[in-house]
Sequence to fold (924 residues):
Amino acid sequence: MSADLSRRRFLKVLAGSAGALVVGLPLAEARADDAPLPPGLLGDDYRSLGAFVRIDADGAVLIGTRDPETGTGGATAVARIIADELDADWQRVAVLPLGLGVQNRDGQPAWTYGHQRGGAGETVPAAWADLRQAGALARWLLLQAAARQLGVPADQLRAQSGLVIAPDGRRLGYGALAAAAAKVAPPPAPVPVKQPERYALIGQPAGDADARAIVTGQLRFASDHRFAEELVAVLSHCPWPDGTLAAIDTAATLAVKGVVKVVQLRPEPSQPLGQTVLAPAVAVLAEDTWAALQGRDKLKLDWKPGPSGGENSADLEQQAVALLDDKTAAAVRVRNDGDVDAAGKKAARRLEASYVLPWLAHATPEPMNCLVRLEKDRATLVVPTQAPQQAWTVVRRLTGLAPEQIRIQVPRVGGGYGRRLDHDYVAEAVLLAQAAGRPVRLLWTRGEDLAHDVYRPGSAHKISAVVDRKRNVIAWTQRTASASALARRGVPDDRLWTSEVAADQLPAGLVPSYRSDWCALQSAIPRGAQRGMPHLSNAFAVESFVDELAHAMKEDPLDTRLRLLGEPRQVALGDGHVLDTGRLLNVLRLVADRIGWKQNWLHSVNGLGLACWRIGDAYVAHAIEAALDGNDLRIRRAVCAVDVGRVINPTGLEGQVAGATLDALGTALNLGVTFKDGRIQQHSYRDYPLAGMAQLPREVEVIVVPGENLPPSGASFLAMPTAAPALANAVFRVSAVRVRRLPLMRELLRML
Amino acid sequence: MAQAQGVPAEPAGRIVPEPVRAGIELEINGERYRHTGDPSMPLLWYLRDVLRLTGTKYGGDHSGADLVLVDGKAVPALAQPMAALAGRRVVTVEGLAGADGSLHPLQQAFVDEDAIGCGYCTPGWLIAGVELLNRKPRPSDEDIDQLPVLCRCGCHARVRRAIKRAANGGKA
Fold:
């Protein structure tokens, strides 16, 4: 890729005046400085060096990571990739977020580090493509410096764990070599990266690089940062995105000690969703959080609904179901292989079922917040964002500052799940700082967070399949209806389906005739990206339906799946996507074997369920064992197998797979957002009950397929899609209740 | 002004008598403090805004991210008005490690098990887990099931392992 090559070309070597070696991408401003700051004095200014790697004279290694860390382990994995190429001593490595890298190129932004996005499954694959070079270059420079110092050719030296070792056993630490290495002329061509047999860190387990800071409470999330002279802002949003403020009385609020100001905010209708305020809001600005919250409680606000005040989630669901049943309804044809209509005429058997998925909130542990300081020629922000470049766009538009005058720090983020790809809260904070003339620390309360989200839209899925006499699925028709998460974001109408359904999702490519249609629903409730979408909802429908097919044919669902997948082979799905049925079969067999499928499926008093899926080049399967005691559903076992290609950090991967499994199970069991008269009905964790320990399996048995021959894939949400259908399939076995609507517990208790 | 409220109270035993000062005296992580602001202010904001002890997080009611130990009991700091804390001993996540920086066995177990997702709810898990271990050094799975912390990253299984590891003297 050209971006990788250009980045390699621009890797720079800098000398720190206290003998540090820096390999990275110097910012325009850093170049303009008279002299680099001594590393010991760099403090928080290490960012100005744009460093990917810095080696200090004392041997300490600092690795900067460009993508926001939202808890997916990306920062640790990327640092290990770089540190391995460097042959660094991991004990001496500190990992720090670089924040946004932006320079001014004729008034336009030039992104110093290329694409910066976290929690979207891109961090590790992107780093694999380009950041190994930063570590390799630093190692090469250190070896050259050592060669001169030891009088031994560099190719006879070896690097290991922060040391350069000569054939005669002499050793030099990286710290002692850093100053000299910074003076070595970099090579004209990229340095070759390591051969896999030399990996020392890649593939080895490591805990999160921030673990110690987190368990001691020292790690500062964005909401833990402070600016001098700041005001704290809390908000009361209008229940309707298109509503209006008919009356406001702020007297009691302004009488609260510490309250400074009340400011009204309105969405800018010309702006795409996510780049402006989500709904009209009244902000209370105060000297501290408690004063702001008390002031907010005393606001007297009379909000009037807009047109969305007539919306009900129950009505929308009925519309969706009606659309699916109406074959003449307008629909986008997402995929059309073969001829499903012709195949239907020679049907031995036809099966049809519909599934309904609820709206979902993000419920990030750290609520939306943003710290802003505006000066005449500078904006400084601390933002929990997954996409700092999009945050920059919002700040730029609202302030008119030059590209490099906007500084965005992104400390570790308290959960993203797609919510922080949008920056309505950044717009709010900037507008409030402008209104207040002081730095502002915006904090959303949980109630605001749940009731004013960019929700995962609910959806309905109707699937019908035609099976021939040999039990082969010869035709598959899927119709999906939802309100696109891409609406009001400048996406053309004919691409709105892409957030709702994947054109190459299972079983596309496996059945001769396959058709997928998507029907658009309209809604004013804001919608956006969600962890694991669109796979999360589609896998539930598809993998539940495969299980229904098996039961309709009175056979073991594992056998049905094996027949559907067929022989191990590469199936071209179009647009360069390939389904490797061998890899999918493998993860499926692994979970089936681990849970003892063949021995237990028919005979266990508990229910067993299976599901498998593909996301990009990664494969996943779940096997779940569920027990029912009266109305009490217990998930006894959860087994998940993944094939992500090369594994960078097995500990991190296992954590992501187990975590996504538990998140998906908890979500499937309990969670749904509803709205009545246009108002969201969930305002606290009482209404939106994330599953606690007692509802979840005690362990997740994670099986990782070794994949040394393939580049690494992102894995943070890979285990989301299959957990819920495997659970629903297990629930069917144990209860004879087929749950076709989530959340599962409500539906199960209704049908038991 | 907010800063001034955060200064540790004077050590006892001064010779010159001082006038009786208003305020709520309490102990936080072994240090004595006097809160002279609004008595109805929840402990969470006193910790975060006044003392700048930001390890205890805001996650909303029932999130568990704001758990602290008050006289050894894990309670949400959001639901504790300062007025109720006179003379109480509060321990936050910052107070779990030893004075020499040595980690509490449960903190070490969280590191060893990598029981961390985004890390935002981790202080809550630690406080809840420490209370449980103090109450019941060998907690059962059912005991662990009751921990009142919400987590979207899905760290539950690793948290469970970490608590068992700490209960087992640091061994998995």
